[in-house]
Amino acid sequence: MTPVWSSAAPADMAQNGGVNLGEAVRIGAHTILPAERRDIVLQTADGFALVGDVALPPDGRPPAATLILLHPLPTQGGNMDSHLFRKATWRLPALADLAVIRLNTRGTTSARGRSEGTFTDGPAERADILAAIAWAQAAGLPKIWLVGWSFGAEIAIMHAAHLPVEGVIALAPPLIRATSQHLVQWAASRKPLYAIVPENDDFLPPRPARDRFAMTPHAKVIEAPGCGHLWVGEKAVQLVLDHIVQIVRPGFGPLPTTWHGPYSTYRAKEA
After folding, report:
1. Which of 24, 165, 248, 271 could staple 65 via S-S, CB 3.0–4.6 A?
2. CA-to-CA distance for 129 and 133, rounded, in angstroms?
3. Torsion of CA 192, 197, 202, 205, to 10 degrees
4. What are phi and psi of 57, to 5 degrees?
5. Contacting residues for 183 by C-beta, under 8 A, at least 6 apart
6. pLDDT at 21 (0 to 100)
7. For residue 88, which of 27, 155, 5 has the smallest C-alpha distance?
8. 105: alpha, beta or left, given left = phi > 0 and alpha = psi -120 to 50?
9. CA 178 vs CA 73, 87, 149, 158, 233: distances in Å
10. Cα separation of 168 and 244, whole Å?
11. Alpha-carbon span 18 to 245, nearest angstrom
12. pLDDT score of 20
């Protein structure tokens, strides 16, 4: 499979670029740090084209690991632009030398465009995950991890126990579609499985999450104090991104909260 690259800049942002002449800038909700960014197209085995993008470390630095981000429920507005994943792609290539791949699963629309196919609530999305993994492998990207949020966490747990990835990081997993049967598969695979669970999650708070994941003895449940299912606020974002980086790059971090150097500021494009 040959990686398909599209236009030179992501479709979801307008940038107000600037050069930092030595003064530290606090990294905030709209800060875009340097990266090599490209739009991509993923081809599924069942014949659908999925839109996405990739961000690589700047200045030609090789990525230390790769994140494939699986978004929340598209029927409730989730897509590759969901705020936590935008901030991951804006920050982690520069701050942690990670390659970050985002995609719209089948039937999902964002500013990047609409992925072909029809949403199936989990089963057929397995092919979407496989397409993203195949693209990353063809591009020579190292140490592939799946990072899913809510619905994205569920499809990662449902399908990835025996896929060619390093492991899964599940953010606020509801465990509605992902069942005990899937967790048993993870127990058999012994592949790393992390669940970062908000203290105030609306669907599966930490205590019941620990009970559910107990059937996968090696799984690690990490409580996120003061956070909710939507990870609202910069404190929640920093906490999640720190945990992700510490998992995929042990001993690295915590991430800085200020930046010296060139950066851009996100401004939504006018209709």
Report:
1. 248
2. 6
3. 100
4. -55, 145
5. 157, 212, 213, 215, 216, 219
6. 53
7. 27
8. beta
9. 14, 26, 13, 5, 27
10. 10
11. 27
12. 56
Q: What's the mean per-residue pLDDT of the chain?
A: 93
Give the contacts of 76 (CB within 8 A, at least 6 positions apart). none
What sign does the CA torsion over 114, 118, 121, 126 have? negative
Tokens of 85: 């994943």
The residue to which tokens 């994941």 are assigned: 213
Domains of the chain: 48-257 (3.40.50.1820)
State residue 99 phi and psi, 5-degree precision.
-85, 135
The residue to which tokens 């060619």 are assigned: 164
- Is the pTM higher than 0.85? yes
Which residues, 6+ apart, have CB-to-CB distance to 241 below 8 Å? Answer: 87, 88, 91, 92, 255
So what's the pLDDT on residue 2? 52
What are the Cα distances from residue 76, in Å, to 72, 82, 213?
8, 11, 26
Q: Work out the burial of residue 267: count CB atoms within 10 Å of its CB; fewer than 13 is exposed, 13-18 middle, 19 or more buried.
A: exposed
Tens digit of pLDDT for each residue in 113-158? Answer: 999 999 999 999 999 999 999 999 999 999 999 999 999 999 999 9
